[in-house]
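agent> fetching stored inputs for the (3S)-3,7-diaminoheptanoic acid docking request
agent> found them:
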Amino acid sequence: APLIRREDYLSPAYWIRQVDLTLDLDAAKTIVASKLTIERNGQQPAQPLRLHGEDLNLLRVLVDGQSVSFRHEDDMLVIDAPAADQFVLEIRNTIAPEKNTHLSGLYASGGGLYTQCEAEGFRRITYFLDRPDVMAVYTVTLRGDKKKYPVLLSNGNLVEQGELDGGRHFAKWHDPFPKPSYLFALVAADLVAREQWVRTRGGKDHLLQIFVKRGDLDKTEHAMNSLIASVVWDEARFNLPLDLERFMIVAVDDFNMGAMENKGLNLFNTKYVLASAATATDADFDGIESVVGHEYFHNWTGNRITCRDWFQLSLKEGLTVFRDQEFSMDMAGSASARAVCRIADVLRLRESQFPEDAGPMAHPVRPDAYQAIDNFYTSTVYEKGAEVVRMMHTLVGREGFAKGMSLYFQRHDGQAVTCDDFAQAIADANPDSALAVNLALFKRWYSQSGTPHLSARGQYDTAASTFTLELSQANPVTAAQPNKLPQLIPVAMGLVGRHSGQALALQLEGEAAPSGSHRVLVMTEATQRFVFTHVTEDCVPSLLRGFSAPVLLDDGLTDADRLVLLAHDSDPFTRWESGQKLALGRLLTALPTGTLELDEPFVHAMRGLLRDPSLDPAFKELALVPPSEGYVAEQTTEVDPQRVHAVRESMVQQLAARLNEDWAWAFAEHQVREGYRPVAEQSGKRALANLALAMLVRHAVATGDTVWPGRAYQRFKDASNMTDRLGALQALVNAHAELAAPALERFHALFRHEPLVLDKWFMLQARAPERDGRVFAQAKQLLKHPDFTLGNPNRARSLLMALAFFNPAAFHRADAGGYVFWAERVVELDAINPQLASRFARALDRWRHLAEPYRSAAREAVARVAARTDLSSDTAEIIHRALQ
Ligand code: B3K
Ligand code: ZN
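agent> prediction call returned; pasting tokens
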């Protein structure tokens, strides 16, 4: 497939203003009749009308009621330029939903029919100008068997419904908002709904509905609460009300991603809708809140204002991730709970986006070229994109940002626009801000790929009472971008007194008075120096507070400095980071020899954290888990995954042993006695208790003691909620305890009728810490388990992605077994579902980063896949980039 370039953008030769669709729904053969009101775009030269179409069976084409000549060119239907500037095009075609395993377009799942159109799925339903800048008003009539499909849904408002002969019925929907085709949706299935009315501030009532399979209704309460909270939050924080009479969410078992923001009719992976205390963990409850929020917030940022072209994807995704992150933080409540959210977001960014930015798939937040757009729904576009929006927020302040958002909607409501339009609106609403003053420089965050390296060196001058901070940035060469310019980096910071532990007043040279003890330094050059005066005490700089920019920070601090920050910093993020860096330093030092002996000061500091009565349990849990193997690997040039695993395991094992009594104390102290509620206050305790239990079981298994494994098994059996049950099971499995096998068996028997819980069962086994190749062997065995299938994306992910992305030591084997497994599954999956396959294919895109013998073996596996001639363009793009 050819490369599509951002700089080649042209507006379309035709606009489609109205779409009238009638679908005769049937899983084997659905008939689609489409009537399009089309207008020539006067800005483009006269030319044939070229419509996208994929896997369609064309029956007829009429222009203004007359038959016309047409031809097929690749995946395009080409109709010679109609003479009129405006005309009606009628198309009739058929599709086969039950054969559609790509889960893009119209497909069958569990007896129902569902659509997924973003990015280019609409062309798999009918011929169309399937691009986001073509916005039309849709009227949709659905017809189908009333028994099979009692519920018929599409976007907007239900205008008519009724009976047809032969046991069929119909529903007619009209969506008054012009929208791009990627936001079209329909559902035909046997479903039931939880309903709730909400009143917005303008006094209007709106109907909220969540559709699920019969029997799942009791698992929709949390999703409904999250939806109501989202409606209230967007109106309160951004003045953005619900603009629809009804807002529907439909849950479906087979879904390629988390959820989809179709106008008024969001489609969701069941994973992000269904939850009960017995079947979902605290993390699942949080995931539901954030995804329900995310899709709901798209109604304004994405749907009311959409993307001009797919290169602008971050316009809606980066902004909407930022909004859902803020929503989750506001919902979490306390400052400490907010910090925990922030740390979790940063962990996610560093685990997946930083490696992406350092590998062959590195691309700017606003990419320049792609072959398959589905490959660019990346953590760069989403998570780094959200960080770019967050930096704007930091630079203009909370109020300024809200003003910028209003201006953005005032200017662009109803339009398809670009990332530039967004940045311009935020800047124009805040003309005196550092953002507006340096807008062109700031926008390098959109155009340059790669993670900037920021280094900081500080010096205290006792005689002059000054602290000099020198900051410099290096912008690394990345795939397709050899030359880089400095970027604007907001560095939120403070100074912490080395002896007093106090936050010191900050006064820069030339300033008349100090301005508090926290500020944001704005870096605009490669190297800059900041001199603080009236500094009464030697101090440690606390830098990049709240992770104020997505950069790699080399702060030049010593262990002693970090211990000061760990004990005293007022910023919880930096405090957490100091602990992580203490651990990271030890892991990296141990890598060359492969042996690690924890020193007393470190153990003492960790004990201090665990026992500190002023810290929240959720924070402690995050602070006491050492950096992941993936993150450690990122800090080295030639990764030996087995070595990284051994060293990190050794650290965990020693923490388990040396803090044994402290873990026992923590476990006892953090039991939740009240009934289960998915709230931060309870989930923090459960998280810390589960970590403590895992440590206790680990140490017990290592020393041959059976008491804690027995207790864990008991807890596993008796648990009243999934978080505790899974925590106890995980403690046994991860420690390779003898009781792990009976526990796994029991868990399977208990939940064999709960697909989302079975996913956990697969995932838990695929992610267990490797020991003597047992985990890999078990994963291969699980492939043959009767409950395993590649056809369901959740199930496929729970085994394949868990192993290849989250279990480096099980996957990267000296005998290359993991790579053979990978190559076979990529090919197998690609024939079924290219989007899923290309995701999985990325597990080896950074083979160059590996040490021998892994590197050569991985390369060979990639080359073997590349040699195939039948790859989808999605997978081919990933594989060929990996070899470039
Ligand atoms: N916009 C969708 C993602 C569509 C992915 C297409 N491959 C979900 C979301 O970001 O909210
Ligand atoms: Zn999104």
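agent> quick read of the result: The pocket of zinc ion (ligand 2) is lined by residues 294, 298, 317, 320 (CB under 6 Å).
agent> awaiting further instructions
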